[in-house]
């Protein structure tokens, strides 16, 4: 035996309100979308011309929404209003509605939904009243009902605020901002058209200058300040039209890539993230998709091949615009790059042609300041670009880079290293080298055997002093001579420092201990015999003073390299400073203390 499902309408409404819709105000949007679809259907039917209009009238606790669209025949009412989940629009990309549930959102604010409708096809008018308990009644409608549909809602006691005329006006104005016909909100004694302005980018009537001025004014209202420029968008896939405003600031991470998107002139979202490519965070777009589909909640676009194709076309348009700008207005491009180079680097990392075009303009952090690649090459005086991708290592490299000599680039952002490597691959005449700790050490001059012998005491004392700190001491010569010592992290160094912080034992201590096992010293410290202090230290006999000096120079090298200090290193620094102060002040208690506590 076959039985029919029964649906608990109350449960369904709870589901919609709790999980599908942002808030009860969405009923305004759903009513308008049905009106927009109905007007479209009447226009498509090609009958007598009419002036489309959507209207909300609010009086006391009652709201009446009217559209002069195609209306409903008695058969339509039975088929579509009385059956949840059935839609007359399913599969047709011309309409916004798809799912046959939108009207239910009216139950979020009203216990009953009254629909009075007359079909453009000439059938008599009908009145349908649906209740939240799942029952409905049907009777003849008033004979003077015009073609179209009227939906009458009486506010639920707890939702009266959602039917207040001012609030309805602000929602209807936002949802219907781009509709090409009036949306009216009225209350006794006041009638307001809430969607003035429309889409200025489509208004070519007064000429291009007037259009540009109107679009920029729209952008200024949107951003709160004048945009740098705007890019017209029109895609074939999804029929997306609109503009992308070039932001006059660098957007924060959480504000990136959020765009105002309409579907068939009705607002879908102020924070849409799918339609514009992610890398284009230098723009905020306002787009109206004529043939893309929203999801059931109507707060995002459906992720389908048309959406992907539309996004690809928008990417192409933005790319072309940037390329055009480099030819048309280089000064403006420079201004744009100064604000948005991260976005442009992201794009260049994906696209060689784009990289070729823009890399000469893009700034990189370097030991000689922020430079473009041509500037780096000019500084270098050779066709070599050297970069370091690790921050700690970069600090050592930057100290070694002589002023006026070849700069070292700090490939600090996600795309920098990729960009430099791609550039190297495309330009074999330029050598792009990524420096590691080994390369930097190569640049230090080793001591001659005679020098080594002369500094043997210093080296032995240094090794002895630093072993407990997990550091290995080396003696070299390097420029600038003003640098006493350089500390290079070795593999496992960060683990070592973390281990000191978490202490030994416990899960982390054990785990890090295991990882550390077998690693070499955490830090390699090179003392610079070019420095006069080191030359003098090399002549000192081994003893507390020499060890104190070595400890202090080691900590100084760590600080210069911006390495975080462990508690022991901090202790070393404090002890050394106190000793020095004591020695400077003189007296019996202030002689340099032994460095025994180092061990
Ligand atoms: N103002 C209207 N004019 C004409 N027909 C309407 C109107 N409002 C609703 N209908 C009819 O009722 C059906 C159900 O409407 P409902 O809003 O519940 O769903 P939908 O618009 O089809 O889809 P969705 O749930 O995606 O909005 C529609 O498919 C349409 O046939």
UniProtKB/TrEMBL annotation:
InterPro entries named among the record's database cross-references: HATPase_C_sf, Hsp90_fam, Hsp90_N, Ribosomal_Su5_D2-typ_SF
Molecular function per GO: ATP binding; ATP hydrolysis activity; ATP-dependent protein folding chaperone; unfolded protein binding
The entry's keywords: ATP-binding, Chaperone, Nucleotide-binding
Binding site for ATP: 30, 34, 67, 149
Family, as annotated: Belongs to the heat shock protein 90 family.
Protein name according to UniProt: Molecular chaperone HtpG
Organism the protein comes from: Deinococcus metalli
């Amino acid at each position: 035996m076959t039985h029919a499902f029964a649906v608990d309408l109350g449960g369904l409404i709870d589901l919609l309100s709790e999980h599908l819709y942002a808030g009860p105000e969405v009923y305004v949007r759903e009513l308008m979308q049905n009106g927009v679809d109905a007007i479209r259907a009447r226009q498509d039917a090609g009958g007598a011309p009419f002036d489309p209009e959507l209207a909300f009238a609010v009086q006391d606790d009652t709201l009446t929404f009217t559209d002069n669209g195609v209306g409903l025949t008695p058969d339509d009412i039975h088929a579509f209003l009385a059956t949840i989940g059935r839609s007359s629009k399913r599969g047709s990309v011309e309409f916004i509605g798809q799912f046959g549930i939108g009207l239910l959102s009216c139950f979020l604010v009203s216990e009953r939904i009254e629909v009075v409708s007359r079909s453009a096809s000439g059938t008599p008018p009908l009145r349908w009243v649906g209740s939240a308990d799942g029952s409905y009644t049907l009777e003849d409608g008033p004979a003077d009902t015009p073609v179209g549909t009227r939906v009458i809602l009486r506010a639920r006691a707890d939702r009266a605020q959602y039917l207040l005329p001012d609030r309805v006006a602000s929602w209807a104005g936002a949802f219907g901002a781009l509709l090409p016909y009036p949306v009216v909100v009225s209350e006794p004694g006041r009638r307001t058209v809430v969607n003035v302005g429309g889409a200025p980018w489509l208004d070519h009537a007064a000429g291009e200058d007037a259009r540009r001025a109107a679009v920029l004014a729209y952008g200024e209202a949107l951003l709160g300040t004048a945009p740098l420029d705007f890019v017209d968008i029109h895609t074939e896939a999804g029929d997306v039209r609109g503009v992308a405003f070039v932001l006059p600031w660098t957007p924060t991470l959480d504000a990136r890539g959020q765009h105002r998107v309409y579907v068939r002139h009705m607002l879908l979202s102020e924070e849409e993230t799918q339609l514009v490519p992610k890398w284009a965070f230098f723009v905020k777009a306002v787009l109206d998709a004529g043939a893309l589909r929203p999801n059931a909640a109507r707060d995002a676009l459906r992720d389908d091949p048309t959406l992907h194709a539309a996004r690809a076309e928008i990417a192409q348009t933005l790319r072309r615009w940037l390329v055009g700008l480099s030819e048309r207005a280089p000064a403006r491009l420079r201004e744009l790059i100064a604000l948005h180079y991260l976005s442009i680097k992201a794009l260049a990392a994906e696209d060689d042609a784009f990289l070729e075009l823009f890399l000469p303009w893009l700034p990189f952090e370097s030991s000689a300041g922020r430079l473009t690649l041509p500037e780096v090459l000019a500084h270098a005086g050779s066709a070599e670009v050297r970069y370091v991708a690790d921050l700690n290592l970069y600090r050592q490299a930057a100290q070694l880079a002589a002023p006026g000599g070849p700069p070292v680039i700090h490939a600090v952002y996600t795309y920098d290293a990729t960009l430099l490597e791609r550039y190297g691959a495309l330009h074999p005449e330029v050598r792009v080298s990524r420096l590691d700790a080994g390369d930097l050490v190569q640049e230090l001059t080793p001591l001659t055997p005679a020098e080594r012998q002369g500094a043997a005491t210093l080296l032995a004392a240094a090794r002895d002093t630093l072993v407990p700190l997990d550091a290995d001491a080396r003696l070299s010569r390097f420029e600038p001579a003003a640098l006493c010592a350089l500390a290079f992290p070795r593999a496992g160094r960060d683990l070592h420092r973390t281990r000191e912080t978490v202490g030994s034992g416990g899960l982390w201590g054990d785990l890090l201990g295991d990882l550390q096992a077998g690693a070499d010293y955490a830090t390699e410290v090179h003392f610079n015999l070019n420095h006069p202090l080191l030359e003098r230290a090399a002549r000192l006999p081994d003893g507390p003073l020499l060890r104190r000096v070595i400890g202090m120079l080691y900590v100084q090298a760590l600080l210069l390299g911006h390495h975080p200090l462990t508690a022991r290193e901090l202790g070393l620094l404090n002890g050394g400073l106190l000793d020095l102060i004591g020695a400077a002040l003189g007296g019996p208690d202030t002689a340099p203390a032994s460095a025994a506590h180092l061990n």
